[in-house]
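Write out the 3D structure for:
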Amino acid sequence: MVNITASLALPKVNRLDIFILKSELVMKNLKLEWYLLILLTSCFATKETTTIDSPKTKTMPAPEVIASVPPPQKNDLSSPLPQLINHSPPPIQMDINTLLNRFHCQQTETQVVSCNDLRTQMECDQLKLPNPLWGAVTPLYPLISCIIIQTPQVVEKIEREGYLTQHQNKPSYYRRYVIWKDGKFQLIKNIDELQKLFAPIDSAEEALSYALMATPFQAQYNQTVNPQYRYYVSLIEDTHVVSTDKNYQILLYTKRQIGCGSHPTSTILVTVSRNGLISYPSQQLAYGDPAEDNLCINSSK
């Protein structure tokens, strides 16, 4: 008989051959995984690029910058009008006859005229009558406003020496004060000189006068609610002073005078300390006239 087992005997395979075979299989698997990784990466990159370049997702051009503020929406006349609280103005007056008579000056409704010597001496473009509500500062001296029109020729000097208030108006101007003290005229240039002259502040009325002199804001009394106005608050209250142990808080008003767009009126809560320091960190929109939404006012003469 033929020995079948002997004829089918397999050749011997040593351990080195097995190791080489396994290594080749591992390398093939690694190559296959690498090819798959490259293929997947290419697919994702192609998809992302397609998405970015798709017309549906293109970035639109940046919006055009609008020079003027677009007018707000019209006031909803069906909404309730704000509550109104009125306060009476304090009985404050100021007598400037001594000052006017010294230079034989005359006065119009708002200005002091026919005293060019005084205007030139104080380097003022105009002399204006004082606000009667300034009359509660102590000691009280006869005083008038020194108006300096804001021009390139005077800005550097005024900014260096100081001023009391700056008004963005038509035209824009700085404000200082001329007082009659110790038998002569003196110029009050800045807040430091004003504080030195009138501090400490000893009453609510004096705090009101001092705040009006030291800021560009206004007192408002006898206000009414206008159904045609746009209101941003639920309460409209006249100017008043709240006294505390350390300071006085005065509610004042200001209106946007220059520029294009709406010209709203805002409230300012001014804090005056008893030593004459002033702060007014923020303002709040109060109301506006929709008829002024498209009004443009520049600061030139």
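Residues 178 and 300 are 26 Å apart (CA to CA).
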